[in-house]
Specification:
The chain has helices spanning about 185-190, 195, and strands spanning about 35-40, 45-55, 55-60, 65, 80, 90-100, 105-115, 120-125, 125-135, 140-145, 160-165, 165-170. The chain has about 210 residues and is mainly beta. Strands 1, 5, 8, 9, 10 and 11 form a 6-stranded mixed sheet that branches. Strand 8 and strand 9 form a beta hairpin.
Length: about 210
């Protein structure tokens, strides 16, 4: 894989609408009003998240580093927020993500649409849906759903909802290595570059040059 020290700047695109049964679970037809979401990237391919929107609403301030603490990434820092809906009849959760690989500087964006019934839902502070956004290698984007890691193994046994290859957006490529003083945690990550460069690449069904 070509490595040209740079940093994430969003751009990967793909659309996937999940099918299958709408697992409403113990809440019957209760549509979630809250959202708990995590982010993760593999240790070999740390990324900067440049943007994330759910049903058209931006989720946080960007750019931020995606968590990259696990060989098998299935969770990062947890954020609880309201789940926006345009109207009372909406059943689909629309996701728009933008990110950049820190090592290569390649930017991607991805768009996914999933039925909320495909998500793990619990009554936490209101009916809450759980999502984990995983940024893989070469622009791969995955959505998992679960509440927390397995207490016995410590592994995040999330259920995969969808995955896709993001779309390259070369016009957004950038070298985040030039912005270490602007973004919390970036300098520390770059100081450990030899460690994550030594981690074997994970398999990816994406080429990294999707258009």
């Amino acid at each position: 894989m070509m490595r040209v020290f740079a940093i994430p700047c969003a751009a990967a695109f793909g659309v996937a609408l999940t099918g299958g049964a709408f697992a409403m679970g113990m809440f019957g037809q209760s549509r979630p009003t809250e959202l708990t979401f995590n982010d993760a990237s593999h240790q070999s391919t740390p990324v900067m998240v440049d943007g994330l929107a759910i049903n058209g609403r931006t989720m946080g301030s960007f750019p931020i580093l995606a968590s990259s603490s696990w060989m098998n990434p299935r969770g990062g820092s947890t954020t609880l927020t309201g789940l926006p809906w345009d109207n009372a009849d909406d059943q689909i959760v629309d996701i728009h993500a933008e990110w950049t690989e820190i090592e290569t500087g390649r930017a991607y964006t991805a768009d996914a649409s999933v039925a909320w019934g495909e998500l793990h839902v619990e009554d936490v502070v209101g009916v809450t849906a759980y999502m984990t956004f995983v940024y893989g290698r070469n622009g791969e984007f995955m959505l998992f759903t679960n509440a927390e890691a397995d207490p016995k193994t410590g592994q995040f046994n999330g259920r995969e909802v969808t995955r896709m290859c993001g779309k390259r957006t070369p016009n957004r490529d950038q070298n985040y290595g030039l912005r270490v003083n602007e973004i919390p945690g970036l300098g520390r990550l770059i100081d450990r570059r030899d460690q994550w460069m030594a981690v074997p690449d994970i398999e990816s069904s994406c080429s990294g040059e999707n258009t």
